[in-house]
Amino acid sequence: MINLNEKIAIITGASRGIGAATATLFAKAGARGLVINYHKDKTAAENVASRCKDLGAEVLLVRADVAIPASVKKMFDKTLERFGAVDILVANAGIWKEAAIETMTEQEWCETIDINLKSIYACCQCAARVMTAQQRGTMILISSTAGQRGEALHSHYAASKGAIISLTKSLAAELGARGITVNCVAPGWVATDMAGAALNDKKTLRKIRDLIPLGRIATPEEIAGPILFLASDLAAHINGEILNVNGGMVLCG
Ligand code: NAP
User: Which atom of ligand 1 is nearest to the CA of 143?
Assistant: First the structure.
């Protein structure tokens, strides 16, 4: 049933974790062109690219720091040059670092806000320009449960993820009339490198599992599935929605 029907998608932070799983699933679902963005891990990104090619997608590998708007613009320019369109944006790249508010430096604050939030402004601006010209397109922004309930020792992260939720609703209202939808996926705990430090500690893992009604941590593929649904034509009338994928840990909507 779900088919991306030859669409072109840009996925930021696609070298590892949720982004890599999303790129692979999009290739399986019939995307024609995939832009695999990465920042530091070229080898991992190349592996994802080769998996997607084996599944029949054309791939453009783009190294870009999404915290720098000019680099994001270059990534969109390269995409248009290669594929001529951007049908789907998955703004996924992010970092999660620990810092207590009393000692958090301005640099720590800005690093998280720039990579997690300024990147979304930059990606959505470029996508809005292209999609307005096309009069079609969809954006899926990746937030977190932290953006809805806060997170001790990660206030900068939670603030960036909360802002992504209000940005989703604002852009859905602003761009809908042009045939553009903007939605958000908010994962809970996912087994990726990002959560590795917490999940590799047995005591912490047990505590986290106890908070999740399903009793387990999500796989990256279990987040990629809902992202694919929102990217597909099956979700054509969904706009401004926050899709929680957290095993029932945080019940909100
Ligand atoms: P991950 O495994 O740590 O992967 C992060 C990805 O982001 C990598 O591909 C990395 O690229 C890329 N990235 C980091 N900084 C970048 C930058 N400045 N420019 C471009 N790419 C950059 O993380 P993940 O768990 O898959 O997380 C993906 C998204 O889901 C994030 O937005 C995260 O906040 C959100 N999320 C995750 C969880 C969780 O439990 N894992 C929970 C809720 C929300 P390189 O490797 O090339 O540097």
Answer: 44
